[in-house]
Design goal:
single chain; alpha/beta; Rossmann fold; five-stranded parallel β-sheet; four-stranded parallel β-sheet; 42% helix; globular; binds phosphoric acid mono(formamide)ester; binds norvaline
């Protein structure tokens, strides 16, 4: 594996397999086996944006692996007062054994990785959310027994951190990825490249056909609040509701990275239906991130 996890592009198919095998083992053995690879190690968790799942799963994950998590509010760090990202990286490398960061700019996270001697894990930027998609793929592996050959349809902002990371995932594993989005928010062609297993579909009902997984995310990502009114209007036809699930078929399961806004990107009825596996998906954040930290932080 490379030193950092900045996007899923840092991983190859072998790395993915290693992460999933370890994550499933850690999930099975949780609370039973004494596995403390982070004993004596400290991991900084820098957050510039809100979080429930990411913060808690990383803090608990570090603790369960025997390490010490340090929550760092980016707004209270000197980097917010003009200290450079590079200097911050150099200093943190003298204290910590790993850094997890959630912030706005992907470029900042890449710079942190470049100047830090310790592993840097991206816990969400405006552009990518690799840890989330690792948990999603693990969930698919558990439910379908494989990822290859499954069909996943993502509804909403085709240029969001979630959509972008799903596209990266579809470059690594051969599943069918359909992005159901309005033209204005269709996926970035530069990111899609010429991958035959990724396509954009404007019609939300046609997109759903035979999907194994229907995936959605908020219409207004963190940092895009001023676009709320326009986004609510343009994404309205892409709500995941009964019509979409029926168009997909009985086999279809609902994925959502959460937090969900019932009545916006997903109807309350679908969110709370038996097809919804969103809490299994959320749980897998913990297991997959424990695996990633075990493999990266040595
Ligand atoms: N899915 C996710 O990253 O959730 P949080 O924003 O609560 O961390
Ligand atoms: N796209 C969402 C994901 C939240 C986990 C956001 O960036 O706010």
């Amino acid at each position: 594996m490379k030193k950092d996890l900045l996007t899923l592009g840092d991983l190859n198919a072998g790395d993915l397999q290693e992460i999933f095998e370890l994550a499933l083992k850690l999930k099975r053995e949780r609370g039973q086996v004494d596995f403390k690879p982070l004993r004596g190690k400290s991991v900084g968790l820098i957050f510039a944006k809100s979080s429930t799942r990411t913060r808690v799963s990383f803090e608990v994950g570090v603790a369960e692996l025997g390490g010490t998590p340090l929550y760092l509010d980016q707004g209270r760090m000197q980097v917010g007062r003009g200290e450079t990202v590079a200097d911050t990286a150099r200093v943190l490398s003298r204290y910590l054994h790993g850094v997890v960061i959630r912030t706005y700019s992907q470029a900042d996270v890449e710079e942190l990785g470049r100047f830090a001697d310790i592993p840097v894990i991206n816990a969400l930027t405006d552009e990518f959310h690799p840890c989330q998609i690792l948990a999603d793929l693990l969930t698919i592996l558990e439910y379908s027994g494989k990822i290859e050959g499954t069909k996943l349809v993502f509804y909403g902002d085709g240029r969001s951190n979630i959509a972008n990371s799903l596209i990266k995932a579809a470059h690594l594993v051969d599943f069918e990825l359909v992005i159901a989005a309005p033209a204005e928010f269709s996926p970035d062609p530069a990111l899609v490249g010429n991958a035959a297993n990724i396509r954009w579909e404007e019609d939300p009902i046609r997109a759903a056909k035979d999907a194994d997984y229907i995936y959605t995310d908020v219409w207004v990502s963190m940092g895009f609040e001023e676009e709320r009114a326009r986004r609510l209007k343009v994404f309205a036809p892409y709500q995941v509701n009964r019509a979409v699930m029926q168009a997909a078929g009985k086999q279809a399961k609902l994925l959502h990275c959460l937090p969900a806004h019932r009545g916006e990107e997903v109807s309350a009825e679908v969110m709370d239906s038996p097809a919804s596996i969103v809490f299994d998906e959320a749980e897998n954040r913990l297991h997959v991130q424990k695996a990633v930290m075990t493999l990266l932080i040595r």
